[in-house]
Fold this sequence. Notes:
15 helices
Amino acid sequence: MGKKLLISLLIGSAFSALALWLALRNVPLSELAAYMGSIDPAWTAFTVLLVLLSFGLRVLRWKLILHPAARITFWDAFHPLMIGFMINCILPGRVGELARPAILSRNRKIPVTTGLATVAAERVMDITMLMILFVLVMTRVSISPSLDMVFGKYHLNRGTLQTVALAMAQVAGIFILALGLIGFDRTRGWGRAVIGKIAAHLEKRPGTAARFLRRGCILLLRIIDNVAAGLALAKDPGRLAACAGLTVLVWTTAAVSYYTMALGCPGIELSLVQITTVMVIICFVIALPSVPGFWGLWEAGGVFAMAIFGVNTTDAAGYTLVNHAVQMLPVIAVGLISAMVTSVNIWQVSSPVRNLPG
């Protein structure tokens, strides 16, 4: 393990421990320990299988999105995806989203910008699905205005959820607009024509600055073409529908995994719809800036969400903490195995500067 990576992991772990303490500081630790010891391991094992299944579905979806640009095998997509999600769990800044296309480019010579476009398309699908789930659960659940949980500088309440939902909707809208402008031939042609004219004009001008800008225009044209290749899925309604169906399956499997974990936890007697509400709220809460792996903020969001349904703090904290570990540790373990199998240097592929060109 590289020295820089080790330092990042140690700093991230320290912040995670502090965040976890902030989330659980009002929970009796002895009761929490006793609660965690009473969880049914059979349900835990079954939940781990569901978590891995949900990532298998993500691999199939990414493979399908990539298909118009490059035909790759399940394992060609599996290793970069698992390594990318593993990096997101252990390093700050969600740099795993950049690492994934970098690894794909190294292994299959697919341009990084093409891979980034497919990752962006995935994020749009996930955000859209989350927004649909949010609207559905918020129409069925009443959050009391008096329910307010303080976590560091954040107040977790209905207003915070609505603010995050609005921000996510805006991000999704910007992504859809940008991807649409590049993904469709006519709008991309307009952009390429403008950039081409700028490059032609710069070619006639002397000086280093003009040459530098002209090369930048040429690079931008190549990037636009690579991104368009990653978004060719939009031209195939059948594949687009299949990806939408896989997105539904991914989130359905995730919700069921939250539910099966609850079945093994004493004191958690919530329906699948209620547990799905808890999952959605946690997903919205961890969209706030936090430490690697969302430790602390995830637990605070889970305790807040389960308080809506009258679950006491100790039971909610125990379930949320264990479920967080079950949702993330298998991903970290499989990602590390994939890194070893493919001889990937985690620190190297985690560098945003190295991953952007191409």
